[in-house]
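User: Hey, my collaborator sent me this sequence without any context and asked if I could get a structure. I don't really work with proteins. Can you help?
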Amino acid sequence: MTRSRSRRANEAWESLLTAHASLMKRFNAEPIWGEVSMREYDVLYTLSKHDGPMRLYELGRGVLLSQPALSRLVERLADRGLVERAADPADGRGVRLALTAAGREQQRRVGGRHAVDVARAVTAALTDEEMRQLEAIGRKLAAQGEPFPPAQPHPNRQEATL
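Assistant: No problem. I've predicted the 3D structure and written it out in structure-token form, which is a compact way to encode the shape of the chain:
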């Protein structure tokens, strides 16, 4: 990768992170988070996107929390009756997580208001074509998954051998 391409990649990444931080601050300031925090909503939303129960590590792939922090947050949501835990039939030591009826209702109530805020912010800044491009770019980046592919040697540089 050439230096200018590397620089462009880093500038694009910084722009994406800055946009994310700015929008998240804006969304967090909205008066819809009284019953659940944004992080709690993130867990409820991620669970709502799945047809059935999911393991904690699966849930962790969709949220920006460490495993210990996610475990504590799920515990609090379960104590409030928003998430239920059940033994995993495939693995007696494992636990599967799902929304309760109250959790699903809470997610829908907050999610509907949040969707309005997101639509207002995004449509105010982007054209329909830009929104399509942003969605395609986001999906493409998300599809990379982990781990990163190994770095490719620069074609004009000899790599040192041990």
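In plain terms: Residues 34 and 110 are 9 Å apart (CA to CA). You can pass these tokens on to your collaborator as they are.
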